[in-house]
Amino acid sequence: MTILTLTRRILLGAGAAVALSLGAPAHAGSHQVVDSIHFLIPGGAGGGWDGTARGTGEALTEAGLVGTASYENMSGGGGGKAIGYLIENAESNHGTLMVNSTPIVIRSLTGVFPQSFRDLTLVAGTIGDYAAIVVPADAEMDSINDLIDAYRADPGGVAIGGGSVPGGMDHLVAAMVMEAAGEDPTGFKYIPYDAGGKAMAGLLSGEIQALSTGFSEAVDLANQGEVKILGVTAPERVDAMPDAPTMMEQGLETEFVNWRGFFAAPGLPEEQLAAYQDAITKMYETEAWEEVRARNGWVNIHNSGDDFRTFLEAQEKQIGDLMKKLGFL
Amino acid sequence: MLEGLLIGLSTALSPINLMMVVGGCLIGTFIGMLPGLGPMSIIAIMIPVAITLGDPTAALILLAGVYYGAIFGGSTSSILLNAPGVAGTVATSFDGYPMAKRGEAGKALTIAAVASFAGGTIGAILLMIFAPALSSVALLFHSAEYFALMVVGLSAIAAFAGTGQVGKALMMTLLGLIMATVGEGALFNMPRFTMGMMDLQSGFSFITLAMAMFALPEAMFLVLKPRRADTPDDKGGDGKITGLRFSRAEGRAILPVIGRQSVQGFFIGVLPGAGATIASFLGYAVERNIASAEEQKEFGKGSVKGLAAPETANNAACTGSFVPLLTLGIPGSGTTAILLGALIALNVTPGPRLMVDAPEVFWAVIVSMYIGNLVLLILNLPLIPYIAKILSIPRAYLIPFILFFTLMGSYIGQNNSTELLILVGFGVCATILRFADYPLAPLLIGFILGRMLEDNFSRSMQLYDGISFVWERPMTLALLVLALLLVLLPSYRAKRARDRQRGVADGD
Q: What is the CATH number of the domain that holds A87?
C-alpha cells in the first residue's frame, strides 16, 4: 500500500507540476481555487459514485477552479474499504476527496462498516435525487392514497418492488409512505430486485403492483407514457415534472432525499477545507457544471459544512428510527 | 419501414460515421481482447468520447462499433488463451480452446467471426421487423419463469455428462452454486459466508473466478506437464497454425446451427435479465442434444458446432437485448444499462415513444448494428492470422504472457489486490482438480447462474407465499419439464445406443 501510495503521489506531483508549468498561463488571471484534487471512488468504474466524482472533477477543472483532477477507484466492503483507507492514511491524504451518498448512512447504521460520516471531514453535499412511488400508466390508481386503499383492501395482493435489498433505500421509502399513512411499515410485501431496470420490468409485467424508485428515473419513464407517478418525496413539486404530486400535498408526511456529496480525511486543516468548499460553491455558477449536471439529470442540492452535518444527522435519525421499527437494527 | 431504413442508411454511410464505426470496431476488438475488460467497461470508457461528438447518431454508431468489437475481442481470448473475459464467452471456450490447442486457432477464430456476424445480423433483422411487437413478449416472463429459465441453463452441464463424468460434473456444479452464495445477496440485507472479510462483501468476482478456473490452470499445466501431446508445441514461427478456412463440410454443419441459434439467442436476449450468458449456455446445450450421437462425442473436444452455437447465440442475444431497451426503456443487462445512460445523456430517451419522437435515432441504431457487424467481419478476417500467431509464441514467453494477462484481468476491474490472492488460491485448487480430471466448466456455470437462480426463486417464493408458482404458472412448469428432458435425454440415448451395441441410434 505504501509503495502504491508513493507512486501515486509522485505521479500526482508530476501531474501538478505539468499543470503548473503548462496550465498556469492558460488560466492566468483566472480564479483557480485549488491546485489539484484526487478523487477517491469507493466503487467500480461506471457506477453512480464514479459518475459523480468524474463529472464534478470535469466541471471543476473545465471551469478553472481546480488545476488538475485525478481519480482512483477503490471498491470493496460496500464502500467500507475506501472509508477505512481514508481514515487510516489521513495524514497523507489531505489532497483527497471521497465521493459518497445515502448508503453511507444506511451502511454505518447496519454495521456493514464500523465508521460513520462523523469520522470524516464533511466537505459538502452537492447533488441529490428525490424518491417516487410509481404504478403502470394503465393502472386504476391515480394517487398515493388509492394505492394505500388497494393495499388495505387486499394486503397480500399489493406488492411494492424496488431496486435495493430489504432495508435499502427503495424499501425504506416505501416503508416511510406506509408508516405516514398509519399502516404497519413491516406489514406490506416488499419485493427486491438487483437493479432498477429489472424492477421496472417486474412492474410492467404485472408481477408487482407499485415500484419505489428514484425520481429522475421515474420522470424518464413517465415521459414515455409507461408509468404514473403517484407521489414524490420532495417538499414541493419539482420543476422537472410539475404534474407529479408530492407526498406532502396528499397528506403523507414523507420527505426523503438521496444525496451525493464529498468527504475528506479526518483532521484536514481548516484553510484547506475552506478552499474545497469555496471551489464547490463557485462551481454551481459555472457553465461547465450546468453542462455536466444537465447531461446526467442531476438536481442541485447544495449543503456545505455545518449544513451538511445537520442534514446528515437528520437523515440518520429518520432512517435509524425506521430501521428499528422494521427490525433491521 | 423501408423509408426508415433508407434514412438510417444515408446517415450511417456518411464518411464521418463510417470512420466512427471502423474506429469503434478496432478499439473494441483490441481492448476487448484483454480479459479484464468486457463490453461494459469499454463502453463506459468510450461514453465521454462519444458524447463530445455532439451528434447522437455518430455517437451511437461509435458505441455500436465498440460494442461489437468488444464482444468479438472477448471471444478471442476465450479461444486462444482459455481466458473468457465475460460470462457470455465462457461457453465459447468449451470447444474454441480445444480447437486452438489442436492447431486450428485460425479456423476457430474464423468460425467465431462468421458466427458472430451471422448472429448479430440476423438478430438485427429480427429486431427491425419485430421490435414493436416483441415489447409485450419481454414482459410475459415473471420471476418464476426466470427461475425456470436458469434451471434450463444449468442443464448445459448435461453436456459434460456424456463423457462418463456425470458425478464429477454434478459435484462441480454444486460447488459453483455454493460459491455463488458468498457475499451480500441482492435479496438479503446481510453478508453470508464472508468470514468477516470486507473484500468478500460483494462475493467473488466473475472475472477472478473465470481466470482462476480456466486461464491459470492452463498456464500451470503447461509448466507442470511440459510434454503433453495436445499442447501447442514450442516450435515458434508459423507452426501448425495456418488453416484459416473451414471446409465445406464444416460450413454445412454449422449453417443450421447458426440459423437456429440466431433465432433462439435473439428471443432469449429479448427477456430483460436473461441475456447473452444464458443464451450461450442454452445454445450450447440444445445443439449438443440435437446433434447425432457421433457428433455429440466431439462436443467439448473441439466441435465446430459447439463453437458456432454459443458464438451465434450470444451475439444474437446482445442484439435482442436492444428490444426492451429501445421499446420500453428497460435495460436488460449491464451493458444496455450503460448504453441507456449514454442515450439519455445524448437527449434521447428510449421507450414506446422513441419510434414516434425520434425515428431517425431508432433506425440509426439498427443500421449501425448491420454496419458494425459487417465492418467487424471485414476488419477482422484479415487480422486473424496475426492474432492467431499469439499461440505460436514459444512456450517460455507464452506462459508469462498468459500469467500477466490473467493477473491483470482480475486486478483491473476492482483495483483490489486481494483479488490477486483469491485468484492464485483458487487457481491452485483448480489446477489440482484438473489433474484429478474434474471438469471445471460446470463449476463456472453453477457460479454464474447461482445468484440469478436464487434471486428469482426467492422473489417468487415471496410473491406466492411458497413454491406454488411451480405448478400454478404453466410456463414455469413447461420450462422445468424441458430442463428435466435436457438432462435425461442424453443418458437415455446413451443407454439406447449401448443396448443396440453399435452407436448408430439416430434419435432425431
A: 3.40.190.150
**A271, amino acid identity:** E
Query: Distance from B415 to chain A by nearest Cα, in Å?
Result: 6
Q: Which one of A225, A256, A287 terminates a domain?
A: A256
Whether residue A115 sits in one domain with residue A84: yes
What domain range includes position B58? Answer: 2-499
Q: What is the dihedral of CA A302, A307, A312, A317, to 10 degrees?
A: -130
Predicted local confidence at residue A299, as pLDDT: 87
The range of the structural domain enclosing residue A225 comes to 129-256
Q: Residues 134-153, chain A: which have Cβ within 8 Å of B?
A: none
User: pLDDT averaged over chain A?
Assistant: 86
pLDDT tens string A288-299: 999 888 877 788
Closest Cβ–Cβ partner in A72, A166, A201 for B272: A201
3-state SS class at A73: strand
What distance in Å separates the CA atoms of residue A314 and residue A317, rounded to the nearest whole number? 5
Determine, yes or no, domain membership for A27: no
B195 interaction partners in chain A (CB closer than 8 Å): none
What DSSP assignment string belongs to B174-212? HHHHHHTT-EE-SS-SSEES-TT-GGGTT---HHHHHII
Chain B residues touching A208 at Cβ < 8 A:
463
**Separation in Å, CA of B353 to nearest CA in chain A:** 6
Predicted ipTM?
A: 0.79
Mean pLDDT across B308-328: 88
Rounded to the nearest angstrom, the minimum Cα separation between A219 and chain B is 11
Q: Do A224 and B351 touch (CB under 8 A)?
A: yes
